[in-house]
Amino acid sequence: MKRGTPIFVGFLCWLMLLAWPGASLAFPAPQRVTTRSPHGPLAIPCENCHTAAGWRPIRAVPEFDHNKTAYPLRGMHEKVQCTQCHVKPVFTEVGKLCQDCHADIHQRKMGTDCAQCHSVQGWNIAVQKVRDHQNRFPLLGAHAAVQCEDCHKSAAVGQFQGLSTACVSCHLKDYQKTTNPNHVSEQFATTCESCHSSFDSWLGATFNHGAPPINFPLTLGHANVPCASCHVNGNYSLQIAPTDCGNSGCHLTTWRQTNNPVHSTAGPAFAVANCASCHTTKGWDSASFDHSVTGFTLTGTHASPTPTPCASCHVSNNYTLNSTDCMGCHLAAWQSTPTFGGNVPDHIKAGFPSSASACSTCHPITKWADGKFDHNAFGFPLTNSHALVANGGKVASCASCHIGNNYSLNIAPTDCGNAGCHLTTWQTTNNPVHPKAGAPFAVANCSTCHNTISWNTATFDHSATGWALTGSHQMAPAGKVVACTDCHVGNNYTFTAANTDCYGCHLAAWQSTATLGGNVPNHITAGFPSSQCATCHDTLLWADGKFNHSATGWPLQGAHVTTPCASCHIGANAFALTSANTDCYGCHQAAWLSTQTLGGQVPNHIAAQFSTSCVSCHTTWVTTGWLGATLSAANHTWFRIPHNGSVCSDCHLVSTDYSTFSCINCHTRTAHQPGMSHPSVGGQYVYGATTCYNCHKN
After folding, report:
1. Residue that terminates a domain, selected from 581, 601, 624
2. Structure pTM?
3. Is residue 569 part of a domain?
4. Bond before 62 cis per omega within 30 degrees
């Protein structure tokens, strides 16, 4: 190297130093030159890390607070040299993830989140989550003391993810070494946790005998039996139902030794597979049989073993009975009924059915002698007098009706006559004589009137015939009828007339109207219809008959109300009037004709040619009669009325001729005011009777 080289190099370094931001020489301000920091945007003074002696080495303890950055230093990171992480001058160009600085020796098998296992205190100081192994396989019991390498072979580079959690994956050799019982030869499942629920030791295993697939719960007597007592010679492949005690090979000998009853010959109910029907795991001697499952429930005296032991019915070990028929056991009691007498009928002669349901109809389970027959069950309840004397009735015994031990009667409760019990009574009746009184009194209809209390308390509902008895038709004292024969003369109970056909019974009263007189019209000559008595008369009293005249369309008003019927209804066909109720002239023609001579205020209707429509003027006929007649303005032929308070005769001076009138009767010459000589009419005015009307129309 040439001698001038060091000088040249020194010169270059001097120039670079001048260009450095930390350089400070006494140059004029305009001549100062700046340069960019190699550390990038680092807003701290250089002297916090560098010294005046040179850029390197930096200060032993730089004045930089890493906690104010986005990555505070904790644990072992605090002791690391800056350049070990910041290998580049720009300090922000560094990663924040563990793998940015640390190689993943787990080869990505544990994921990229190192912090889930490791901490800044060191790689070998695992966090609590790792120590507890809180993932899909928590470390419990003996597993907690095992080193990771014992399961995760090859230490850090071993398999950590996807490792099987099945016990047999680690404990296969333990499974293969078992002897009591030999799990392999007995084909035990490799689901170890089914029995080994504790992680502390293989010992103390418990097996849920009641869970699938075994489904054989060990209860009571089975619970404390050693496994080998049932699983003889290490046979753990038994497939026996909990109820199959006999076939199991455990209790077959016991079943064969039974003698009360001998199960092997006692039929299907005691078959070797049906032990559980009576026995429980509590003990053989506590057997109890539910007899109701046979369809024959044991109640009352049938209850077993007391008062009736099984052998009392199941004679000679016969447990194959399949009948609920009482006769099978009680035949002797049945056959004894012919000699009992009293209220006990001879069941044999009576033909009583021998089925269980028939026997139970009368006999309870508690005692045969307490047998009582429910007569209601046959549709013939024994009420009142039909009941036995012992029960408050009048029948001495069943034989009173069931003569000759005949218990096959099929008689309705209402068929008293046909029953053969009351036929003689029916035949001897005389009020009325029932055999001749028609269908209502037929031998099959006794209950229509009679009840079981007594024959003499018979009551007949007459309304059922469509002919209700009301008013005087009722029996005394409510009415006037003494006996049924008052109407049903000659035992005639076959009436078919309607209840409005009074004429059938009251012909004499009808005929008497011809002579009664007074307000009672002669019904015969009046042609009154004999089927319409009820139009005027009710059932209380004939004399109170009242006719509703308004029903004819001709209501009686005013003076018509008090007028006797005969005053209007005159002649042979007096009650066949068909005139309208406004046709006054039909009855009042004489009054019309009398207007010719009445005079006074009454005009001569004939001469005046008045209409015969009387109501045109006589509008007040309802209250005042003919008087007070007024002609309506609409019917007046000349001018408007009323006319200054005048009456008809003031204008109509000729009472026989209402076609003429005069104005000057009231409007006299002297009545005019002075000077009213009508000069405006040009001398044509003539004072006359009707001259005024020529001009003065109103």
Report:
1. 581
2. 0.38
3. yes
4. no
